[in-house]
């Protein structure tokens, strides 16, 4: 029978886990649907962190462990659903609870390493190439597998029964006097130290490289700063919050199990709290996901904005933009920095074709695909040149000459249209730039994977 204290603890832990699952699901959805091409490699590492974190909290949700401390160690006691499962399955869940937590730290270290190499690559001083990225992914898979197998085997032999306490015979106990515990403790201290200091070291290197990027590549600095600070804030703090206390707690258990008290009891709660921190901070710090989430919640700059997929001109790159008829092609773009007054672009054929399809009920805004839009464009071919000419006149009248090259032509979706317009002399090839979905960065991202 659970005490009132344990029941309250489990209720809090369950609430945190459901919050984690909600945030993790939202983050996964945005990672798959709203990631611009320059952020794909960054997304893959964030997916790695999300996978291990979600797996860990799901295991904790099923097992619902509380801890019972005794003179020579402590035991994990499964509750609720975990108490109804076969002992072998619960034994596996208890092992996974610790192993998956350690792999979250590995995933975060790999993300910091990748971020540092990417910044060096953008500075043109070596760094992340296609081969080095593949090598890092392969090395990461090897490290994940090694940590998973080694700690699983070690903890399997570490779990046992409390001989001095028959009442605890049904629990999963860690005997601190066992030689396996010493090996486990040393391994854990080494691993947590390496994880923490590697993250700090790579974090410092990345921030130093960011200062160099501010001078050497100012056009991509804001983009690099967003990704780097997003990783530092969302991952460095949680891994320190989770890794350091757990290592200290297991060390104290070696000498006096009763001394740690609530730390041993709340070790699974600490593991549960780190995951929602990572998810929530990632959603807040990374602008593409934050703005897309605001739009989905209808609390952005324009709550009536619609989402559509737009192809980057001349390149196989995608971003999510907004069809805002009054501020500009993309509300992600702060047009106030480029165009001093709003453009009335309601007559542009892309928006007209898009609106026609949505009003006829042929598709919903969130279901728009490039094929749907291209099918509509084929009916608007006779109007392309006239609208391009009108757009060029508006650009010329309101945009400074040195800024004109940065203007994005969002509705020239296919390369065929780009070539036809250039051949017709209506748009200079140098003015046809990739559609941007950010506010003040990525002027040079066409040439780099940042």
UniProtKB/TrEMBL annotation:
Residues annotated as transmembrane: 12-33, 45-63, 88-113, 134-159, 179-205, 226-252, 258-286
Key words of the record: Membrane, Transmembrane, Transmembrane helix
A Pfam family reported for this protein in Swiss-Prot or TrEMBL: 7TM_GPCR_Srh
Classification via InterPro entries: 7TM_GPCR_serpentine_rcpt_Srh (IPR019422)
Domain of life (superkingdom): Eukaryota
Record protein name field: Uncharacterized protein
Species assigned in the record: Steinernema hermaphroditum
